Amino acid sequence: MSSREDEALALAAVAALTGQLALAPKPGLPDPRDLGARATNRDHCSLRWSAKALAPGLAAMAAAARRTGEPSPGLRAELGAIGRCTEHSVGLAGGGHRGALWTLGLLVAAAALDPGARSKDVTTTAKKIAAHSDRRAPRRASRGSSVSAKYGAAGARGEARAGFPHVRRALDALATSRRAGADESEARLDALLTVMSTLQDTELLYTAGPLGLRHVQAGARGVLEAGGTTTEAGREALLTLDTDLHTRAWSPRGSAGLLAGALFVDALPAPPTTHRT
């Protein structure tokens, strides 16, 4: 049974996901404009609704981690089982978020295992959980794992087993942009572009192949090199990239899920400061 602390972690993860969904313009990704000028596209509304269906599963993952007390093979198997049930619930609510569920589930469990941990400590604990294989997982290969094997990309499992390096890069980008005076939306978009510029996104590899992936990475780097979303040149480059990816129907969903993970870790409360008397 989940506690108030477990439920708080789950709600923080859902808030991070909906915060990512609220950003605009997100190159190739659903955003609030889908409710207006692009009203024929219902992806954004559906994704916002189905994001709420993640909360019970994420709370159960936090409870499992707190009960287990260590990043053990047993915990990894339990998280996998909860994740598959949660995928079914999310599917009934409209679908989506599979990559975000993987990322947020591991990070929520890591945060529950190590209350008060921040940033790299959380991703390090998540790495320890992900190092174990899920013996109960279906034997059929997923689309992501098939693409990873075909192109030698790390994929979602590789990202987790490496300690979520792109979550850490997004956290660094958030901090850098905020220090430079960016508002929160600009900082988050710069963090998304930072992830897009280097991630071997298996969704893009599946739909666009290696050349398409490199095209997207180069486009994201172009926005950042133009000064990011706080500059006129960077904003213009962002809009051009967004139009290009929507026209091609290329969606960097892996980057979006990792940004949600970074926003979750970023929102974790700092551990209390101990004052010496």
Explain how this protein is built.
The protein is mainly alpha-helical and 277 residues long. It is built from 13 helices and no strands. Helix 1 (4-21) packs antiparallel against helix 2, helix 1 packs antiparallel against helix 5 and helix 10 crosses helix 13. The N and C termini lie far apart (39 Å).
Main sheet attributes: strand count, strand direction, barrel closure: none
Q: Which outline best applies?
A: globular
Bin the helical content: 55-70%
Order of helices and strands: HHHHHHHHHHHHH
Q: Radius of gyration, rounded? A: 18 Å
Beta-strand proportion: under 5%
Strand-pairing-aware structural class:
mainly alpha
| Overall pLDDT confidence | 89
Low-confidence stretches: 37-42
C-alpha termini separation? 39 Å
Number of strands: 0
Number of discrete helical segments = 13
Secondary-structure blueprint:
Layout (H helix, E strand, L loop, with lengths): L3 H18 L21 H9 L3 H14 L4 H20 L5 H16 L5 H12 L12 H9 L3 H7 L3 H15 L4 H13 L5 H24 L6 H17 L4 H15 L10
Helix pairs in contact: 1-2, 1-3, 1-5, 1-13, 3-4, 3-5, 4-5, 5-6, 5-13, 7-11, 9-10, 9-13, 10-11, 10-13, 11-12
Offer a few descriptive terms.
13 helices; mainly alpha
Question: Could you give a quick summary of the protein structure above?
Answer:
This protein has helices at residues 4-21, 43-51, 55-68, 73-92, 98-113, 119-130, 143-151, 155-161, 165-179, 184-196, 202-225, 232-248, 253-267.
